[in-house]
């Protein structure tokens, strides 16, 4: 399945492996990711726009797995096109930052100029079961995922680092030249200036931590290599 991408942004390749056991899943509008967490278990980064989860289930079947294998879902933010399939995995722990817990549950609307105009359908609402703290590392089986708060697109927008891949959701998108990123879409974001500032801070923080980041992965474009493209968010 092909995921829609913006003009001048990197093409999404369904099934692309970003790190050992970490696979891209295109659901037609957004991109999500399946991460191996040990024998017979996986974690998801987001769960897409499709409430039937067709693309997720196809990717799970390709691994010889079913819904029960999904042990954790890491939500990058609470917009509808990133959480619609989460209800399909009742056995999974669902992680998000506090700022988006009520948005994901349909109890509050986002603040973006367009995003604020749409109520979340009840059938797509999701209850976050674990609220994250900034810099927290979560263990899921053999997998480690470190969570970073990156407010701006939404109040609780997150980035997740695992096995050298930084999953950014809608915080940014990869430009087609493969060397730069685009900041979050202003029409769907709470505060683009904050989004850009937080991406700069995240770059400095990861450098200070000497974190290994070989790939930036996005929800609405293909990935690009390295950490330094974060510095181009405001260009």
Quick tags:
single chain, 235 residues, alpha/beta, Metallo-beta-lactamase, Chain A, 7-stranded mixed sheet, 6-stranded mixed sheet, 4 helices, 15 strands, 26% strand
Structure overview:
The protein has a single domain (17-232), classed as 4-Layer Sandwich (Metallo-beta-lactamase, Chain A), CATH 3.60.15.10. β10 and β11 (165-167) form a beta hairpin. The chain has a seven-stranded mixed beta sheet with strand order 1-2-3-4-5-6-7, covered by helices on one side. Strands 8-9-10-11-14-15 form a six-stranded mixed beta sheet, with no helix packed on it. A two-stranded antiparallel sheet has the order 12-13. The protein has helices at residues 54-62, 80-83, 101-104, 192-208, and strands at 17-19, 22-26, 31-36, 42-45, 70-74, 93-97, 130-132, 137-140, 143-149, 158-162, 165-167, 172-174, 181-183, 215-217, 224-225. Helix content is 14%, strand content 26%. It is an alpha/beta fold and 235 residues long. The chain is built from four helices and 15 strands. The radius of gyration is 16 Å and the shape is globular.
Layout of secondary structure:
Layout: E1 17-19, E2 22-26, E3 31-36, E4 42-45, H1 54-62, E5 70-74, H2 80-83, E6 93-97, H3 101-104, E7 130-132, E8 137-140, E9 143-149, E10 158-162, E11 165-167, E12 172-174, E13 181-183, H4 192-208, E14 215-217, E15 224-225
Parallel strand pairs: 4-5, 5-6, 6-7, 11-14
Antiparallel strand pairs: 1-2, 2-3, 3-4, 8-9, 9-10, 10-11, 12-13, 14-15
Helical content (DSSP H or I, runs of 4+): 10-25%
> What gross morphology would you assign?
globular
* Strand line-up of the largest beta sheet: 1-2-3-4-5-6-7
Question: What series of H and E elements makes up the topology?
Answer: EEEEHEHEHEEEEEEEHEE
Terminus-to-terminus distance: 31 Å
Strand content: 25-35%
Largest sheet, in brief, is:
7 strands, mixed
In CATH, the homologous superfamily goes by the name Ribonuclease Z/Hydroxyacylglutathione hydrolase-like
Rounded mean pLDDT is 94
Question: What CATH architecture would you give?
Answer: 4-Layer Sandwich
Residue stretches low in confidence (pLDDT < 50, at least 5 long) are none
CATH class category: Alpha Beta
Question: How many helices?
Answer: 4
């Amino acid at each position: 399945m092909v995921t829609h991408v913006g003009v001048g942004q990197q093409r999404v390749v369904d099934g692309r492996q970003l790190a050992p056991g970490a696979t891209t899943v295109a659901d037609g509008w957004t991109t999500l990711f399946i991460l191996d967490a040990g024998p017979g278990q996986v974690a998801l980064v987001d769960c897409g726009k499709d409430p039937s989860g067709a693309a997720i289930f196809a990717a799970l079947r390709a691994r010889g797995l079913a819904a029960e294998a999904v042990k954790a879902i890491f939500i990058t933010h609470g917009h509808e096109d990133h959480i619609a399939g989460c209800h399909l995995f009742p056995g999974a722990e669902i992680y998000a930052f506090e700022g988006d817990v009520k948005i994901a549950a349909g109890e509050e609307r986002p603040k973006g100029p367009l995003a604020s105009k749409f109520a979340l359908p009840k059938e797509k609402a999701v209850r976050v079961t674990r609220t994250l703290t900034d810099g927290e590392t979560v263990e899921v089986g053999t997998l480690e995922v470190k969570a970073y708060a990156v407010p701006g697109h939404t109040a609780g927008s997150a980035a997740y680092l695992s096995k050298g891949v930084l999953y950014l959701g809608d915080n940014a998108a990869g430009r087609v030249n493969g060397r730069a990123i685009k900041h979050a879409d202003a029409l769907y974001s709470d505060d683009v200036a904050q989004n850009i500032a937080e991406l700069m801070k995240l770059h400095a923080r990861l450098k200070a931590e000497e974190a290994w980041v070989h790939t930036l992965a996005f929800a609405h474009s293909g990935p690009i290599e390295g950490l330094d493209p974060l510095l181009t968010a405001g260009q």
